[in-house]
Q: What sequence folds into this?
């Protein structure tokens, strides 16, 4: 159970299926029966998979660690009280650049990270899938932009993405299903002015936020709390879209249920998911198991599933489970202006440039980054200021300048490094599971990219008339840890997200990304889930669901 | 201190006057911060040490804000929500806080809230030393990573400070915005319920130019000359 904003536990129904809501697990829809698919994690990927597979009339159960949020009462217009939308369970961190996790990078509860993402909805570029071939860095994906193109398009239509008439970068230039958000925040206006002065192209980004009514949901009111959970339901999340559709189509969603084990039969195939609900172990048998937990929890679960034939963890004959964890570098640059900006007003990201996305050899590093005008509320501001080394009087003086500050945030590609990894600690959590340790260090190449991006962010703010005040180091988005690839010796899953070692076990989330791209990853995670569902359904039609 | 001495940038603005425009769940969360309960998990001496440390960390004198900061520490100690992340080698949060507060008191030369009894300048010196990992006497902090303790104290204190409505009013943050939202988004255009800055305020709040250390030095780091220095301080 999740602590409420006031401290007392919120009790939510934990068993949901069409026409039924229970706050116990005594009347599970499928009981001891074997279902077709058990999905672990109800986030961006798990939600899409559940919706697709239930619509195809497969028998689907979703097991989610966190609560089934009610936006009306559980989401509040407050940063401190909504930290619980992140995965707060303690992970150990190490390395030269120990990661900030929790709300910064991970979701918990139905909807996963989509409940608190900014809604920036960008496709990866074709080059993102071929960094080794094109630039000699990272690794190629086993699939291409073309393999995801149809799914990008479908996902954009179902969430009614709002976007500009023409998006200048990458392979797709519009149109989008809904018009771009028209009134842009004062911070975005500063960004546009700075870009224009320097001749840098910028635009209102494609957003999973409504610019006009859709499916009974109203357009955005510029409340500004996208990262605290959208109360009007103007921003898409799988909590309000794909999961309810899956339930309507017959899926069962078990929330407040923490998966603790994938049970493996003597034949080496996955046969059930074990999970903990309020201290008691339960079991869901399934013909296919899909792990849609994120970058830390998926390797953590696999690494503790040990047994004959998989002594080092399930699906880990390559030794790659947990390896190649990536983030996006995400430094924030704050500049002060003579006139007020007011970073709290409007959707956080309403102006963007990908002018520095592709490789430019003259910059001295490969790959690139996206820059966003990015709003901030007070807790985020002080977190950045403290991270930049301020406290005491300096901190207070910087805070008093809040309404005069504009902010640009970078989303920078970070190259995969096998030593950036999830491993198991000796320390155990309340479920008796070993905690994860996440090792992370930025590479020298990553540092060069950051320095360039911070330089461009400064230039944009200065060209708009600002004086740069603070540069706050930060990261965003977790990716990798269960890389996809064609070679079973160097990757965990194939291009269909199917484990090389265990044919009826799939992993589908940002965890399978071989490289990070230089933009917000949610749309690619969802497109990948849609493609995985389509491939899985093809197999099901050929009656090869569990075949090796 | 700054918050008392400086004239207000947003004279007359009280964000709580808008509370009836907020949804009930948000209103309840924010209003509760104005009347925090007495500490349950912290001892009286620990609470006094937290308040004294927060006073320096935040340059904040107002007791209603410090009381809320203390209650935020207290609720962290009572909660079973995790820490999000913890560096390898750093004790779990409750342990770090409890032993850290006792260590501050020992370093101040005594037991039981001795830190609170130090003159303000000495409190600041001790905290600055903690941030630099060289607080004395070192044996008072035996086994405790000083920087991690500093970051934990500052992080919890600062997030509470930035969540207090009095601070929102002070910095001109218009606060919760549902069901109302914002409509006048043009630069310099305000919705009627937003705070108005005193026209003379801008000159007053321009921070002093930094002389070594602080912001300017960090900017130089990140500008690409010595990028490695930039992230070492992050943990």
A:
């Amino acid at each position: 159970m999740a602590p409420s904003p006031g401290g007392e536990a919120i009790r939510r129904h934990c068993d949901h299926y069409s026409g039924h809501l229970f706050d116990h697990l005594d009347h599970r829809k499928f009981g001891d029966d074997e279902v077709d698919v058990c999905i672990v994690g109800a986030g961006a990927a798990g939600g899409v998979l559940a919706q697709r597979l239930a619509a195809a009339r497969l028998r689907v159960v979703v097991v989610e660690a966190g609560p089934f949020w009610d936006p009306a009462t559980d989401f509040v217009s407050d940063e401190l009280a909504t930290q619980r939308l992140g995965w707060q369970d303690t992970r150990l961190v190490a390395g030269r650049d120990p990661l900030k996790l929790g709300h910064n990078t991970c979701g918990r509860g139905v909807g996963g990270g989509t409940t608190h993402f900014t809604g920036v909805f960008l496709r990866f570029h074709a080059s993102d899938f071929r960094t080794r071939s094109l630039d000699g860095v990272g690794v190629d994906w086993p699939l291409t932009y073309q393999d995801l193109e149809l799914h990008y398009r479908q996902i954009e239509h179902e969430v009614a993405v709002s976007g500009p008439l023409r998006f200048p970068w990458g392979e797709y230039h519009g149109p989008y299903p809904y018009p771009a958000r028209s009134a842009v925040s004062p911070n975005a206006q500063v960004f546009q002015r700075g870009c224009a002065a320097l001749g840098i192209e910028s635009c209102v980004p494609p957003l999973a936020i409504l610019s006009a009514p859709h499916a009974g949901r109203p357009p955005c009111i510029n409340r500004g709390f996208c990262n605290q959970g959208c109360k009007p339901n103007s921003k898409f999340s799988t909590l309000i879209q794909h999961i309810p559709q899956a339930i309507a189509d017959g899926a069962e969603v078990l929330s407040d249920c923490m998966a603790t084990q994938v049970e493996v039969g003597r034949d080496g195939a996955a046969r059930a998911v074990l999970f903990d609900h309020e201290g008691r172990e339960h079991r869901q048998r399934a013909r296919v198991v899909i792990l849609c937990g994120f970058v830390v929890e998926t390797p953590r679960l696999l690494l503790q599933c040990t047994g004959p034939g998989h002594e080092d963890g399930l699906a880990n004959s390559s030794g790659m489970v947990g390896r190649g964890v990536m983030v996006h570098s995400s430094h924030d640059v704050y500049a002060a202006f003579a006139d007020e900006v007011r970073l709290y007003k409007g959707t956080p990201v309403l102006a963007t440039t990908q002018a520095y996305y592709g490789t430019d050899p003259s910059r001295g590093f490969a790959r690139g980054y996206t820059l966003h005008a990015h709003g901030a509320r007070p807790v985020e501001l002080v977190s950045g200021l403290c991270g930049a080394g301020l406290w005491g009087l300096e901190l207070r003086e910087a805070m008093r300048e809040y309404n005069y500050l504009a902010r640009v945030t970078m989303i920078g590609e970070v190259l995969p490094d096998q030593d950036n990894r999830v491993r198991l600690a000796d320390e155990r959590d309340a479920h008796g599971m070993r905690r994860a340790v996440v090792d992370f260090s930025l590479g020298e190449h990553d540092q060069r990219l950051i320095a360039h991006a911070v330089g461009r962010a400064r230039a944009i703010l200065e060209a708009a008339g600002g004086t740069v005040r603070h540069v706050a180091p930060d990261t965003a988005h977790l990716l990798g840890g269960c890389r996809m690839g064609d070679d079973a010796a160097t990757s965990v899953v194939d291009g269909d997200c199917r484990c090389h070692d265990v044919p009826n076990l799939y992993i589908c989330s940002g965890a399978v990304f071989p490289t990070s791209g230089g933009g917000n990853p949610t749309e690619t995670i969802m497109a990948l889930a849609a493609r995985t569902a389509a491939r899985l359904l093809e197999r099901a039609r050929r009656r090869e669901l569990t075949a090796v | 201190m700054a918050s008392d001495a400086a004239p207000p940038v947003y004279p007359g603005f009280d964000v709580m006057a808008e509370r009836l425009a907020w949804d009930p769940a948000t209103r309840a969360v924010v209003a509760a911060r104005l009347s925090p309960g007495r500490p349950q998990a912290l001892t009286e001496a620990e609470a006094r040490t937290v308040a004294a440390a927060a006073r320096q960390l935040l340059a904040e004198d107002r007791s209603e804000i410090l009381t809320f900061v203390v209650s935020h520490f207290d609720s962290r100690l009572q909660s079973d929500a995790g820490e999000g992340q913890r560096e390898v080698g750093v004790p779990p949060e409750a342990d770090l806080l409890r032993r850290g507060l006792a260590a501050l008191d020992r370093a101040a030369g005594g037991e039981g809230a001795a830190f609170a009894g130090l003159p303000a300048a000495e409190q600041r010196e001790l905290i600055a030393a903690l941030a630099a990992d060289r607080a004395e006497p070192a044996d008072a902090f035996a086994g405790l990573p000083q920087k991690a303790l500093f970051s934990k104290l500052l992080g919890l204190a600062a997030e509470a400070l930035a969540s207090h409505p009095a601070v929102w009013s002070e910095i001109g943050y218009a606060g919760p915005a549902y069901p109302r939202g914002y409509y006048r988004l043009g630069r310099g255009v305000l919705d009627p319920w937003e705070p108005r800055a005193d026209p003379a305020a801008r000159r007053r709040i321009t921070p002093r130019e930094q002389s070594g250390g602080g912001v300017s030095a960090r900017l130089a780091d990140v500008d690409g000359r010595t990028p490695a220095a930039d992230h070492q301080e992050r943990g």
